[in-house]
Amino acid sequence: MSDTAQQTGTAQQIPNQRTIGAPVVSLAMPRLRRETGRLKDRPVDGAKKVLLAAPRGYCAGVDRAVVAVEKALDRYGAPVYVRKQIVHNVHVVKTLEKMGAIFVDEVDEVPEGANVVFSAHGVSPAVVGAAEERGLHAIDATCPLVTKVHREAVRFAKQDMEILLIGHTGHEEVEGTSGEAPDHITIVNSPDDVDTLEVRDPERLVWLSQTTLSVDETMETVRRLRERFPKLQDPPSDDICYATQNRQVAIKKIAPQADLVIVVGSSNSSNSVRLKEVALEYGAKAAFRVDFASEVRQEWLEGVRTVGVTSGASVPEVLVQELLDDLADAGYSDVEATVTAEEDLVFSLPKELRQDANGKRDERALGGRVR
Ligand code: 0CN
Ligand code: SF4
């Protein structure tokens, strides 16, 4: 795993994808300036400035998952059921609910025979089986980069390796990946977990990870694992995805110059929460995560000259633009982009949605409404 910005991560290894010329998240998105006057322009020593991270916001897997729900609603009409939050963002979920999506925790809450979308974080084979048993029409919006980790888990389990899955217990992605080979997978939550870890055979160990972790913390966990188990094998390629890595690289560049970093993202969004932690580790004097601009408090801006702004991979750009509007009210109208990578990865739609009602190939349309 490198600390330099990646263009498209593991793009070449993922089937059913294509790239287009334009970045997934456009920096030049036109917007109407909205003034709320909530935040006041208080004087500070020197010029006020915003450093805006790029890349930020929607990744290819989130874009695909959100478009999948919209397409399913267009094609089948409301309601369309979605197992768990399609992505971990309050605004996205609420907006899709208004359009007719119904979010459920488990497939047994979905009426027999109805349409159900599996979220970007993936599902275990047990969930796929339960949906089949209920006669549901399942649309699998699992990010292809999560599916890649599932495949690695299956492959290593077949070789009778013990898999140390670095990730957060209870996170949907970790539950889905563990479900591929429950007898072969042990979850490692943090570097401190390593000391008490018990393994079957230290000669037959491989580590894999959740896609949305801190790169640095994961490397520390691996370092400690290897200290205890020198024969530990590495995964065939990075499991922490290109989007997670790129967003961390961008905020690492901004953080040392920032008196304050504001990360837009929801509290259950692992990659968003990691951005706040990384900002603090790399020298931001303060950092906060907000779902909406309206949560920013005047006192956070006291004496602040430079504000760093970024957003997690599940965050629509409109929420960042609203934050920039509020910051402009407070005198932070000079916005400078810090660009550490260009992203142009786009995944094709889930196979269940690739053909239109007449059996013709339905090219995915970028421009999901929840942006
Ligand atoms: O915020 P997300 O929905 O998910 P986590 O960061 O909590 O994993 O972002 C999309 C990521 C995926 C899969
Ligand atoms: Fe896929 Fe990474 Fe986005 Fe998750 S954060 S949906 S793994 S591209």
Would you kindly provide a written description of the structure presented here, covering whatever features stand out?
The chain is an alpha/beta fold and 371 residues long. It folds into 3 domains: 155 residues, 4-hydroxy-3-methylbut-2-enyl diphosphate reductase, catalytic domain (Cobalt-precorrin-4 Transmethylase, domain 1, 3-Layer(aba) Sandwich); 83 residues, Rossmann fold; 82 residues, Cobalt-precorrin-4 Transmethylase, domain 1, CATH 3.40.1010.20. Helix content is 30%, strand content 17%. The protein is built from 9 helices and 14 strands. The strands form 4 sheets. The protein has a 5-stranded parallel sheet with strand order 11-10-12-2-13, with helices on both faces. A 4-stranded parallel sheet has the order 4-3-5-6, with helices on both faces. Helix 4 runs parallel beside helix 5 and helix 7 packs parallel to helix 8. The radius of gyration is 21 Å and the shape is flat. The chain starts with 16 loop residues before the first strand and ends in a 24-residue tail after the last strand. Bound molecules: buta-2,3-dien-1-yl trihydrogen diphosphate and iron/sulfur cluster.
Write down the secondary-structure element order: EEHEHEEHEHEHEEHHEHEEHEE
Helix content: 25-40%
What is the name of the CATH class of the largest domain? Answer: Alpha Beta
| SS element count, helices | 9
Strand order of the largest sheet: 11-10-12-2-13
Number of separate structural domains: 3
List cofactors, ions and other ligands.
buta-2,3-dien-1-yl trihydrogen diphosphate, iron/sulfur cluster
Percent strand equals 15-25%
**CATH architecture of the largest domain, please?**
3-Layer(aba) Sandwich
Which whole number gives the mean pLDDT? 90
